[in-house]
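Inputs:
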Amino acid sequence: MTKILDRLPVVRHVRQSVGLQRGMLVTGLAITAVFVLTAIFAPIIAPYGYSQLRDASGTFGAQLPPGGAHLLGTTVGGYDVLSRVIWGTQTAVIVIIVAVLLSIFAGVALGLISGYIGGWLDRVLVVIADAIYAFPSLLLAIVAAIAISGGQSSFWGGILAAAISITFVFIPQYFRVIRAETVRIKSEAYVESAKVIGSGAPRIMVQHVLRNATRTLPLIFTLNSSEAILTLAGLGFLGFGIEPTAAAEWGYDLNKSLSDVTSGIWWTSLFPGLAIVLSVLGITLVGESLNDLADPRLRTRRRAEVAAHTPDPLEVQP
Amino acid sequence: MTAPEIAGPASVVPTTRPGTGGNKLLRFIIVRFLLIFPTIFILVTLVFVLMRTIGDPITAALGGRLPADQLAQRIEEAGYNRPILVQYFEYIGQVFTGNFGETISDHRPVVDVLVRYGGATLELAFYALIVAFIVGIPLGMLAAYVRDRWPDAILRVFAILCYATPVFFAGLLLKLIFAVGLGWLPVAGRASVRTELQLTRVDDPTGIYLIDALKTSNPGAVYADLLAHAVLPGVALGLLTAGIFLRLVRTNVIGTLSMDYVDSARSRGVREYRLVTKHALKPASIPIITVIGLQIAVLLGGAVLTETTFEWQGLGFMLTQYLTARDFVAVQGIVALLAVIVALTNFIVDIIAALIDPRVRY
Amino acid sequence: MTSASTKRALGVLAGTAAFALALTGCTASGGGTDDGAILVGTTDKVVTLDPAGSYDNGSFAVQNQIYAFLLNSPLGSPDPQPDLAESAEFTAPNDYTVVLKPDLKFANGHDLTASDVKFTFDRQLAIAAPDGPSSLLYNLESTEAVDDTTVVFHLKAANDQVFPQILTTFPGAIVDEEVFSATELTSDDDIVAGKAFNGQYEIASYDFNKTIEFVPNPNYAGLLGPAQNSSVILSYYADSSNLKLDVQQGNIDVAYRSLSATDVADLRADDNVTVHDGPGGEIRYIVFNFNTQPYGATTAEADPAKAQAVRQAVASLVDRQEIADQVYKGTYTPLYSFVPDGFTGATTVLKDLYGDGSGGPDATKAAAILAAAGVTTPVALSLQYNPDHYGPSSGDEYALVKSQLEADGLFTVDLQSTEWVQYSEDRVNDVYPAYQLGWFPDYSDADNYLTPFFLTNNFLGNHYSNPTVDDLITQQGVTQDPAERTAIIEQIQAVVGEDLSTVPLLQGAQVAVSGKTIDGLTLDASFKFRFATLVKG
């Protein structure tokens, strides 16, 4: 039983870690768990609906300070801040799932094809991936979000637009990893021999690439999850996100709170912002711990290759 | 996942064995330079296609004012309903002749727009980089020095918080505390009204206020006003990068601290503090240079959000405005410029890295 | 930042802040070069100073200061009076003749003659810029300069009562034929360098969408009289929060367009500033598509009577006051007719016909209307709004409308939003059964709230057609007697009030905020904000 558990990526990491690293990893896992549970049980936890404006005693009223029936106050539009914050986790989790799944599938497929076939196709794909990778991801996401949604802001329209536009900028990351791995494995002895025999080379490669990739994919996965939250919030903040009647979205709420700030109204911006910070913090703590554990220099402080090739996926933070 | 993370577009450079020969380096530089063009071309094409699918500027401006048939007629006259390929070749043709066109929504030459608002973005990125250096590098060295003890954990959580906090939320918090709550600093903008007036009156304004301020009658007061306005946006955007620098410096200094020569220095009795500041930092600087290059893209992305938060009229702020107006020409111009900046910095960074460390060249 | 690291972060912040403070502190007396100038702040944007290339409020706000018109609205009245003109009248059913005042000059010393006037209108029609206002000159056949001071406008339709109004607005700004190009837009720099101004002000310095410095134009000889101040500096803000703080702290003297509702509410409570409210021409309304709304002409259960009942029930259920108070904090006011309050001929027809009779909602009445027509409740209504064109509060406004319609179980509303460009295309293609729209007038006349909306084949494209309304609208356009015309305008509102092609919701108030030392700020039904009356006390 323990053996099987040990082979699961995250569990293995927890066992592997010691001291502070374990502390960070466990804290990160705890925050992330709270985040996911809040998303699942949002309908039960939240006192009101995300687009609810009135109850039996009439409208809530706009910009009410925290206290009374509205623990964290109400927004400029008259929504309950606490409820919007809680429902917002659901939107964030759905976007993460859709965005990361889409980019993993597309990125892995393209990476395998590109790495295996090689030649001009490979070069063209690499140049395209590099171009998109190097460019500020949020800017592309903005344009893509409008193009994808056709401007509609229904629940799935808005979420898909956000998710797909995020996918768009994530694909190059998976693509790079998988392609590099494919190119490396292509020249390995067992693939060469399979080729000589004349059959099964692609199948063997896919197996090996995927097996090896499971070591690095959880890391990219966590980093992309946090980046997905930030990109979603960024889109919402710039006014290209999901409307409040379709779903609760933290970036949108922050955008609306921008004009509250000069009047000293702090509760409309503070709580959605904290929600973003906490959820990203939790996921990033997990990601960084995994990164440390994967990097021998940081795990054991033994000598290693000089840093020029340090994996540093955080470079792509928006 | 190793090399491709940082090597950037270099991964398509024809594989050559590591060597130090001058013509191999030259070949690398040339190939690497030529790759700038497809990069820019791809981004411009991508944005062109996306922009044409999201509507035309005339509907954006007058959709609530004119009947449908009049709108259609105006769109027809402006040529926005022609096949996208025709429009694309027309645009590419113009760009090749150095003509970036005139913005549709406010009739400005695109080059003017880029110069005018680029200065503001440049300034913001400059301030942010200063904050990032001041905060990120010393703290990163400190974290390496105290590694795996509790101050290290605090510093690392601080670093994570820096990039877990969206710049606009950091900006909002800073505004709430320092501008609205304490009233110490201005809440938004690049300069106060009277300062802006003075700056518009100088001869040949460059649009970069830090330079224009020299030409005013009382540069001291103008600089003070500019800096007061720069603090909050600079910090908001700078902390994002500072967190990344902190993490990077820590990782790499720890990495070099375990090298043989550092070990031998340690055995000679060199103090740990000196090891961190003298022996380990220099080799650790190569990846830092590389990442600074990549950070330019991050800064530009973050600038869009920071500019909106602080009403800082730079390229990012204008980009969202022009997007809303569906001003193809302006958006393409801005994206092209950003693509050039990103591609050029990556090129320079790759070259520097290759000069320092031949292994980067594959 | 929430953890223990806050201290460190704050330490860094405080250090940097202190550094900047030290710098600002020792030079607080900087500036002061513009004493006497009145500083006006705005978040509007200029598209171009060329009247042929702009059809937006931000550009017009500037053009209105630097160009004169043949006719203009005097302070406090929406009705046009001769400005550059000495007289203006119909000399034949299709000829509108304007005689200019003698010896008019531009700020650059060029003579302003009938030839300039002809040039102005000819170039509008010749350029017909895609985003320009030339379409307002739909009734102008040609312009003839008879002599140096006499111009005859040959009109397509006779006795057009609206044409004089159009001369006071976007396409009517008279330009200098020696500076402007006849065939293409003239750049701002050329206009400023050529000093082609004939309004109350000329532009002394111009930094596009940053600052404009206005000084009085000594050559202005029009209706409004010379400017009362020595100079005005217009400063452009990217967004409203800085504008609000600057006017609050006295860094600028006047803030005009557009402060957020929250800002205005906050400023009203501040004794250091005065909030000025004026009548506003901007309206917000719900459009019903007569084909696709519930029981509409192309739906499976088409029934005009039931469709009308649905619209009337909506009109009875919306609580305009609640929207105005909660969402707009008084920067918008309830609108009970199609022609907004303040215009000659405006009524409150919807207040009398629907709701509780005094403006509030009445669910019982709505239920009765629906029951009488045999409509089964709840009615499923798809309602669309646009989040990015009519200000940031549209989402809140329509969320509230949805909640009001659903409060008593008579409607179930499917509320969706679409970004502006797509929205503009969809709404005229019958995609939306009911949707939000707003309107800002081109000229200050009731006609501008009727003709574009309720004629068959109107700009709404909502398939509303009522021959009686068509006749009445055409008739008011050519009725010369003011009292008779007003009566017709009132009658149109009564008829449309029964039909409810649209359900008007709100009317925007003009809001300006000034420091205590500013006098002479006037917001009137001309909707033109004039810098010339401002004085610093």
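Chain C has 16 helices and 21 strands. Flag for discussion at group meeting.
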